[in-house]
Amino acid sequence: MDLYTQLAERPTFVTGADGFVGSHLVDRLVEMDADVHAFVRATSSGELKNIRGHGEALTIHRGDLRDKHSVERALRPLAEHSDSLLFHLGAQAHVGESWDRPYETIDTNVVGTLNLLQSIVDLDLDIAAFDMAGTSEEYGNPNEEMVEKYEYDGNDRVLLSERSPVNPTSVYATSKLAGDFLTMNYHDAYGLPTLTTRMFNNYGPRQNPRYITGTIITQALERDIVELGNLESKRDMCFVEDGVRGHLHVALAGNPGEQYVYGYGENVSMRDWARTILDVGAEAEYWELPEIVQREERFRPGDSDVEELLVGYEKLHEETGWKPSVPWREGIARTIEWYANHPEKWYGRVDWR
Ligand SMILES: C[C@H]1O[C@H](OP(=O)(O)OP(=O)(O)OC[C@H]2O[C@@H](n3cnc4c(=O)[nH]c(N)nc43)[C@H](O)[C@@H]2O)[C@@H](O)[C@@H](O)C1=O
């Protein structure tokens, strides 16, 4: 039986529902006929358009993760059910901004997660799964003392898995790690059926252009140079629809109390990621090949010059059958098309730093 048939008429609750990954998750849940409750910031306006048009399939709750009353109010309709699935994707998710707005990052990502968990306990909700969206950033960079604790693939690359030690190197990463641990604490203490996911970099339509993929594409659409920070760091880039399928597999088929790490399973330097994007866009005649230029200054505090991180997603695959399905060039082509067709989302508004 298709795993997703279990979603029909199922109560689902998504925080960060109008954000990048959240809105793609909402699309998928609506498509599968789930009863979707979207929790979005009271001030959300532009982003809300990401989930408009779903009609009665979607109930929108406005609030703020930092305000426990608003969280509790939004969760209350779930009290009538015993098979709800919760997806906690709401966060201050930008690494650079976590240095500019550290208190807001901790409040939203740590206190916000706590508010959600404690509200489930206070309302005595009988839920089927709580998926906490953590991040590969929690692993940070293997430093010298830690290197021996990591596993390697045949090419001497660090292969990250659920067993790898954590080493967060930014306010964002630390806040997400704290949220992860709180989630596990509530599993152990109250028996909540929580699962924590550590997802690697997602890219795709609707992503804010301040992340690397949008930074490359919007510059290429606008001018003949693409200026970036650290070109040598490597990331495991996963198309957002695969990322969303991963969350669904975890919530529907994962084991409560456990952790799941996943991504595309290949990493790429930001220089080669930019080259591939520019190549795909030139082939589709969006631009003539722009020049790639590395900025002199370090991009942001905490970033390392050598990041060779790669994900092994064996556990998720073995337990739930998930594997990525969208090859890079296809995902990139769909992403470029979206930015090209939605200049209102970025034109004149991106600070390419
Ligand atoms: C999994 C994880 O994934 C994301 O975190 P991130 O990897 O920091 O994402 P990013 O797209 O900002 O950077 C990717 C890499 O690219 C380098 N880089 C160079 N030059 C520019 C540049 O000009 N802009 C940006 N943004 N990055 C640059 C930058 O130094 C880094 O090495 C978030 O979704 C986060 O929420 C999350 O959880």
CATH topology: Rossmann fold
Q: What is the oligomer described by this structure?
A: single chain
CATH-assigned homologous superfamily: NAD(P)-binding Rossmann-like Domain
Question: How widely separated are the two ends?
Answer: 47 Å
The CATH architecture term is: 3-Layer(aba) Sandwich
Strand content: 15-25%
Give the tally of structural domains. 1
Over all CA atoms, what is the radius of gyration?
Answer: 20 Å
Shape: globular
What fraction, in percent, of the residue positions are helical?
25-40%
Structure write-up:
The protein has helices spanning 20-31, 68-75, 95-100, 102-122, 171-190, 212-222, 240-253, 270-283, 314-320, 328-341; strands at residues 11-15, 35-41, 58-63, 84-88, 127-135, 151-152, 158-160, 194-199, 202-203, 225-228, 234-235, 238-239, 259-262, 268-269, 291-294, 310-311. By secondary structure, the protein is α/β, with parallel strands linked by helices. The strands form 5 sheets. A 7-stranded parallel beta sheet has the order 3-2-1-4-5-8-13, sandwiched between helices. A 3-stranded mixed beta sheet has the order 6-7-16, with no helix packed on it. A two-stranded parallel ribbon has the order 9-12. The chain has one domain (8-345): Rossmann fold. A hairpin with a 5-residue loop joins strand 6 and strand 7 (158-160). It is built from 10 helices and 16 strands. The protein binds the ligand C[C@H]1O[C@H](OP(=O)(O)OP(=O)(O)OC[C@H]2O[C@@H](n3cnc4c(=O)[nH]c(N)nc43)[C@H](O)[C@@H]2O)[C@@H](O)[C@@H](O)C1=O. The ligand C[C@H]1O[C@H](OP(=O)(O)OP(=O)(O)OC[C@H]2O[C@@H](n3cnc4c(=O)[nH]c(N)nc43)[C@H](O)[C@@H]2O)[C@@H](O)[C@@H](O)C1=O is lined by residues 93, 95, 135-137, 200-201, 210-212, 215, 228-230, 233, 235, 270, 299, 303.
